[in-house]
């Protein structure tokens, strides 16, 4: 393992780091501000991963006065109505609800505590919630103190929320929509270049290296991970050659980061897909994947039914692409292909 000699400050290369200067996205920022100016009630933010949606929303929350109740829910970690309600309860009351409360009781408490207080609830990566009982949560929230409560829904998967929600839920929410366009290679270069300058020692990043990364992926989270992996594996200068060499390793680092809050079974499932792809190419059918997972799993394995849900999670994280086939002898089948940079 080489030392971190080209890194001066590792923080700016973390994806969770929020630099004070954000490149562009001015109109999106202004639209988000309109919630607190009471011009907009509910918002739906959508766009591919790594386009700054979460970052902008967290910036917005941070600047709000403390008189406003704010609740940020990362749905990949709170993917059921009950988990989300507990989190909202905790934010609006400042108390830990503990276990064993009934959903209806949590809802009543939240209703009572938000009656006269301006409240903002953000549901980030909402698709994880919507694959469970999220629709019901959204419906109820949309009817809770609508004069005071605003909901921001963020998705990297869904572009048309009206297609994803029950009609009554959508019409009760009536969210204004903000689409985040993907960055161009030039914009990606600019954003990554700024982070690299804040993190790396001067003259340690070759321009061609950054051009190569920015033309390969416009997902800033992927780009940052790639830069970090390259920096860690370089002693003097990050060149195009060195980023090409670390491409595979960097993608593995990105996958681990994305799966951080998921189970060991998710990781084994992903490993199974990668192994099978390497041996047989793509696409792979799910039966083979589940068999390989069984071979890899040293501890107690989970049922194919659970694995199918976990595979869906990998899909929602954009780590794999699935193609569905209907009909035929086996009914509905899925073919899987993994993503890359
Ligand atoms: N315009 C920008 N300027 C600076 N950093 C950005 C910009 N857009 C995205 N980023 C950075 O890219 C990473 C991914 O952003 P994030 O908000 O998590 O994306 P999303 O939620 O759309 O997946 C974060 O580290 C964020 O700081
Ligand atoms: Mg996000």
Which helices and strands appear, and what pairs or packs with what?
Layout lengths: L25 H8 L9 E4 L6 H11 L5 E6 L6 H13 L9 H11 L5 E6 L2 H4 L3 H9 L6 E7 L5 H4 L2 H7 L2 E4 L5 H15 L7 H10 L3 H13 L7 H19 L5 H17 L3 E2 H11 L7 H13 L3 E6 L7 E6 L3
Parallel strand pairs: 1-4, 1-5, 2-3, 3-4
Antiparallel strand pairs: 6-8, 7-8
Bound molecules: adenosine-5'-diphosphate and magnesium ion.
Q: β content, as a range?
A: 5-15%
Question: So, CATH architecture of the largest domain?
Answer: 3-Layer(aba) Sandwich
Task: Look at the structure and give the mean pLDDT.
Answer: 94
* CATH homologous superfamily assignment of the largest domain: P-loop containing nucleotide triphosphate hydrolases
**Domain unit count:** 3
Q: Which sheet architecture does the biggest sheet show?
A: 5 strands, parallel
- The number of helical runs is 15
- The gyration radius over C-alpha positions equals 22 Å
What is the count of β-strands?
8
Task: Outline the low-pLDDT stretches.
Answer: none
**Strand and helix order:** HEHEHHEHHEHHEHHHHHEHHEE
Q: Kindly, what is the distance between the CA atoms of the first and last residues, rounded to a whole number of angstroms?
A: 24 Å
Short description:
The protein folds into three domains: 26-179, Rossmann fold (3-Layer(aba) Sandwich), CATH 3.40.50.300; 185-258; 268-338, Winged helix-like DNA-binding domain superfamily/Winged helix DNA-binding domain (Arc Repressor Mutant, subunit A, Orthogonal Bundle). Helix content is 48%, strand content 12%. The chain is built from 15 helices and eight strands.
């Amino acid at each position: 393992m080489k030392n971190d000699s080209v890194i001066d400050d590792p923080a700016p290369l973390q994806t969770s780091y929020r630099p004070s200067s954000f490149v562009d996205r001015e109109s999106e920022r202004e639209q988000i501000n309109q919630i607190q100016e009471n011009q907009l009630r509910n918002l739906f933010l959508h766009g591919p991963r790594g386009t700054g949606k979460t970052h902008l929303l967290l910036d917005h929350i941070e600047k709000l006065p403390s008189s406003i109740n704010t609740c940020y829910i990362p749905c990949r970690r709170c993917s059921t109505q009950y988990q989300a309600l507990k989190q909202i309860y905790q934010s609006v009351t400042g108390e830990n609800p503990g276990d064993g409360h009934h959903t209806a009781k949590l809802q009543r408490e939240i209703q009572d505590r938000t009656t006269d207080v301006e409240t903002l609830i953000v549901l980030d990566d909402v698709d994880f919630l919507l694959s469970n009982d999220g629709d019901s949560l959204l419906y109820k929230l949309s009817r809770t103190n609508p004069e005071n409560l605003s909901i921001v829904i963020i998705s990297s998967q869904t572009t048309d929320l009206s297609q994803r929600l029950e009609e009554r839920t959508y019409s009760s929410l009536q969210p204004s929509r903000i689409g985040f366009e993907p960055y161009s290679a030039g914009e990606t270069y600019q954003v990554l270049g700024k982070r690299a300058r804040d993190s790396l020692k001067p003259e340690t990043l070759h321009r061609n290296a950054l051009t190569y990364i920015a033309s390969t992926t416009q997902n800033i989270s992927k780009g940052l991970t790639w830069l970090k992996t390259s920096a860690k594996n370089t002693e003097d200068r990050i060149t195009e050659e060195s980023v090409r060499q670390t491409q595979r390793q960097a993608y593995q680092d990105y996958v681990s980061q994305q799966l951080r809050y998921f189970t060991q079974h998710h990781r084994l499932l992903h490993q199974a897909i990668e192994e099978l792809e390497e041996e047989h190419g793509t696409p792979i059918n799910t039966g083979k994947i589940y068999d390989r997972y069984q071979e890899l799993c040293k501890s107690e394995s989970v049922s194919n039914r659970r694995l199918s849900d976990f595979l869906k999670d990998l899909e929602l994280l954009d780590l794999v692409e699935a193609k569905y086939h209907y009909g035929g002898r086996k009914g509905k089948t899925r073919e899987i292909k993994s993503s890359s940079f």
